[in-house]
Amino acid sequence: MLVAMSAGVSPGRRLYGTAVLVVGLPALVALMVPARDRLSLVIPALLVLLLVTGAAVLGGRWVALPGAVAGALLLNWFFTPPFGTLVVESPVQIVVLGVYLAVAVAVSATVDVAARRTAEATRARAEAEALEAADRMRTTLLAGVGHDLRTPLAAVKAAVSSLRQGDVTWTDEERDELLATIEDGADRLQRLVSDLLDASRLQAGVVTTFPESVSLDELVGRALLSLPPTSRVQVDLSPTLPHVVVDVGLAERVLANLLENALRYSPPNAPVTIRGSLLDTSDRVLCEVIDRGPGIPADEWDVVFDSFRRLPPADRGDRGDRGPGGLGLGLTVARGFTEAMGGTLEPAPTPNGGLTMRVEWSIAPARPGPGRP
User: What pTM was computed for the model?
Assistant: First the structure.
């Protein structure tokens, strides 16, 4: 019951309200006691009431009610003759103390109700905004999936149907081409589904990492193996680079998405370079994926990390991060996984045109030498 009635006020505000009472009541008493013989009881009562009201605004009812009672006891002890006792001899003093206590309790209850209603309204607005965002996401997802999933599915179905035709004799070259179409469509479907699942994990905040020490060379090799074979990727990694601390599976996915994105936007005859170096701070390794495509204006660098975001054709050839067979989730997943591992992913311009994706990861602690613990 107590928790439910205090739900409108945060623990931090209750702490501040308690501090106001603990500090304010003794301070008021110390200031007014020297002049209590010349003061009417009404003046200390009004000042204490003002302090209790402030505590109610900050901490709510369950801070202000004890404060109101404490204030009444202090007024009785220090400002109603005979001083130093809880005896009240004058009916006027009884009325003043009674009115003070009633007003303090009423104000505390009113403020507490207002705080709870404000909190309920804030929660209702947040829930409405979340539902609206979910509806927008669902609409965008359906629009993207409707096209991007149908395209590879249609290609796979057409190739399979062609191979099943009993009245057609296919040459070995034609059969290999149809099988390649099926394999390519299946690979595209696998990437689309993986992006959707990874994006949903990031949105739900359920990405679990298992950091371990691994070389950047191994991560790049694993990422290249997960992509279709290509000779366009140039690897520039120093063998002396220290190991990094990452989740191997997530880091592999980050580099694979960045490489796939770079290959997609670079001209067919332009290479993509992946380069590693040790930053000046000496505690982080920088991995750069460099493309020679049209690049992206600096004021839209953050936009490419938005889910399902597609930049205008003039910005990146004919796609944003989306491109053929993509839902615009590759860079979203890459940044989310990088940050989940404690790293950073930021874009930068490539000299002479293009975009460079810069990934930073912490280096692994140096391993002890022989004979050392």
Answer: 0.53
